[in-house]
Amino acid sequence: MIAILGGSFDPVHNGHLSLAADAVQQVDAQQLRFVPCHVPPHKESLWATNEQRVAMLHLALGEYNGIGHAEVDTRELEKTDVSYTVETLEQLRHELGQGQPLVFILGWDSFRALPNWYRWQELLSLTNIAVAGRPGIKQDQLPAEIERLQEKMVKPDQLHYSPCGYIAALETRPVDVSSTTIRTLLKKRDSRARDLMPKSVYGYIQEHQLYL
Description:
This protein is of the alpha/beta class. It has one domain (2-175): Rossmann fold (3-Layer(aba) Sandwich), CATH 3.40.50. Helix content is 32%, strand content 15%. The protein is built from seven helices and seven strands, in the order βαβαβαβαβαββαα. The chain has helices at residues 14-27, 50-63, 85-96, 108-112, 144-147, 179-187, 199-208, and strands spanning 2-7, 31-36, 70-72, 102-107, 128-132, 153-154, 167-169. A seven-stranded parallel β-sheet has the order 3-2-1-4-5-7-6. β1, α1 and β2 (31-36) form a beta-alpha-beta unit. It is globular. The relative contact order is 0.20.
């Protein structure tokens, strides 16, 4: 099983790492790939450069010991336009073969918004999906399109039996932090930001004067 966690990682923080560790353990993934996006469809721009975001991810993975075999997949950064998850998954499926179990990790808010994603109906033909909760997000009132996926629900440890097509809900530790919150704290030079990310990442941000 290969797990995939996409995002802006602008910057990477303890919430990303905690989610990754919980997902890897519960779906029994042998490998995790962090996939930083070039320009996500819902954002006009990013704060840190591609190189800086990748550098912070490498620092975080070097410091954090709870994930196991993890790597940074930079394929989306090589694009010159918007990053679409379905296209990245198509590339991975072509490279890894039809029989390789994949699981794409999503937060609950992103899962609820799937009907707004580009070619979202094709995702389950390419991967399994593991859904994590987020503090403050009520896990109810799903869109009708998502409600119809209930028949695809299985337990997390069953995902590795199939290359794609199923959904599992993860039991994740609540880490109430976001990159937006961190950027706000950093701009105010608030030292509380230090506790929300690996020390090496905070040091890199200070060294390069990011998010000020």
